[in-house]
């Protein structure tokens, strides 16, 4: 129970923590405004999704959640592109992008926390497990924040590249949901690196959260990923190079 | 390259899995390799469960007393493990993709 709770929290929060750390490096001097633009829509979207979870999940012959989540992942990517391309939209665009990801992670976590079976377990396990999960995720995000801050000072292009990988990761997540719902054709599997680097390993888990590492990608997933990576990197070339 | 991702229209096989008392039933599911198929997962428990499979690259939250639809394949012959993310100790199963000949034998055996 304890380990499972830690893993659940980490799995849901690590991608969000990494994205938030990346965006805070970008908007370091305006972090208060960023926090404001992030918190309000996040809370609103989380409330709406959580309250309508049953209704959403029954839509489209039981594929409503996949549709909503893939839409939110794609919106997250699109908002990052807009934020990078237009300086005037940078702050609210990136805050809304993070809010999209938060609403997915938050609704999954709320579902887990309020599982009817959780009442049979000791609440201490849930509290401790969630605290550990949040703590580990936040610690990795802090390290990532300082690493990116240094990288940005040293070479702006490397920051733009890592932001592009983080954005393309959201498209990878959306494509996986669209494929499992039969709305996108996977195409042939391109490679199998499960033995070399498992998605369940620590590094595989981290790379999955950061850049959407996939041990068995399909052709359409890779094509989408590459196109979106290049597109966001191109948008990042318009970013202000503030130090 | 995009042409390689275009869909091929074919009749889809449908397979069912049930979740009851945090256990998958059946816990071993045989399917044909090389075919795209529809997997229906019925959660008979009042609590939600998340169907998760790293090897199949699928994850899906199924609310209590709910039904989920997943499309999988075409698969290479082999074993593909899956589990319930919320109850990983009990909810475990394996999907076995059989080559055509073995699948036909399996179907014939279970048709009797």
In terms of topology, how is this protein built?
The complex is a heterodimer of chains A (243) and B (112).
Chain A: H1 2-26, H2 31-51, H3 53-62, H4 64-85, H5 90-113, H6 123-154, H7 156-180, H8 202-211, H9 219-236
Helix pairs in contact in A: 1-5, 1-6, 1-7, 1-8, 2-5, 3-4, 4-5, 4-7, 4-9, 6-7, 7-8, 7-9
Chain B: E1 13-20, E2 23-25, E3 28-32, E4 37-43, E5 49-53, E6 58-62, E7 67-72, E8 78-84, E9 92-98, H1 100-111
Parallel strand pairs in B: 1-4, 3-9
Antiparallel strand pairs in B: 1-2, 4-7, 5-6, 5-8, 8-9
Q: State the CATH topology of chain B.
A: Immunoglobulin-like
The radius of gyration computed from the alpha-carbon positions of chain B, rounded to a whole number of angstroms, is 15 Å
Order of SSEs of chain B? EEEEEEEEEH
Main sheet summary of chain A:
none
CATH-defined architecture of chain B: Sandwich
Tally of separate helices of chain A? 9
Shape estimate of chain A: globular
Number of helical runs of chain B?
A: 1
- Unreliable sequence segments of chain B: 1-8
Number of DSSP-assigned strands of chain A: 0
Report the C-alpha radius of gyration of chain A, rounded: 18 Å
Largest sheet of chain B: 5 strands, mixed
Show unreliable segments of chain A: none
* Inertia-based shape of chain B: globular
Structural class based on helices, strands and sheet pairing of chain B: mainly beta
Mean pLDDT of chain A: 90
Taking the alpha carbons of the first and last residues of chain A, their distance comes to 45 Å
What percent of the residues of chain B sit in helical stretches (DSSP H or I)? 10-25%
CATH class of chain B: Mainly Beta
Oligomer type: heterodimer
- By CATH, the superfamily of chain B comes out as Cupredoxins -  blue copper proteins
């Amino acid at each position: 129970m304890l380990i499972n709770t830690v893993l659940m929290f980490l799995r849901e929060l690590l991608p969000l923590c990494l994205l938030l750390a990346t965006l805070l490096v970008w908007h370091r001097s305006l972090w208060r405004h960023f926090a404001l633009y992030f918190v309000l829509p996040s809370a609103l979207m989380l409330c709406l999704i959580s309250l309508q979870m049953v209704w959403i999940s029954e839509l489209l012959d039981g594929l409503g959640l996949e549709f909503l989540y893939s839409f939110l992942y794609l919106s997250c990517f699109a908002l990052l592109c807009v934020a990078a391309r237009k300086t005037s939209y940078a702050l609210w665009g990136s805050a809304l992008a993070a809010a999209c990801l938060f609403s997915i992670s938050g609704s999954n976590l709320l579902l887990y926390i309020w599982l009817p079976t959780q009442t049979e377990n000791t609440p201490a396990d849930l509290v401790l497990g969630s605290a550990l999960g949040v703590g580990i995720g936040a610690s990795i995000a802090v390290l990532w924040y300082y690493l990116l801050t240094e990288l940005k000072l040293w070479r702006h292009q490397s920051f733009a590249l890592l932001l592009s990988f983080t954005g393309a990761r959201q498209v990878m997540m959306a494509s996986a949901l669209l494929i499992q719902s039969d709305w996108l054709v996977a195409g042939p599997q391109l490679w199998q690196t499960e033995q070399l680097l498992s998605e369940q390993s620590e590094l595989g888990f981290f790379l999955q959260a950061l850049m959407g590492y996939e041990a068995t990608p399909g052709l359409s997933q890779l094509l989408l990923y590459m196109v979106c990576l290049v597109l966001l990197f191109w948008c990042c070339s318009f970013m202000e190079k503030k130090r | 390259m995009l042409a390689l991702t275009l869909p091929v229209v074919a009749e889809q096989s449908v397979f069912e899995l049930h979740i009851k008392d945090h256990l998958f039933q059946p816990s071993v599911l045989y399917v044909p390799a090389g075919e795209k198929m529809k997997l229906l997962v019925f959660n008979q428990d009042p609590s939600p469960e998340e169907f998760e499979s790293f090897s199949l690259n699928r994850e899906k939250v199924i609310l209590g007393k709910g039904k989920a639809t997943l499309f999988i394949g075409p698969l290479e012959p082999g074993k593909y493990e899956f589990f319930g993310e919320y109850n990983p100790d009990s909810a475990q199963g394996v999907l076995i993709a059989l080559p055509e000949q073995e699948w036909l034998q399996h179907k014939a055996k279970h048709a009797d």
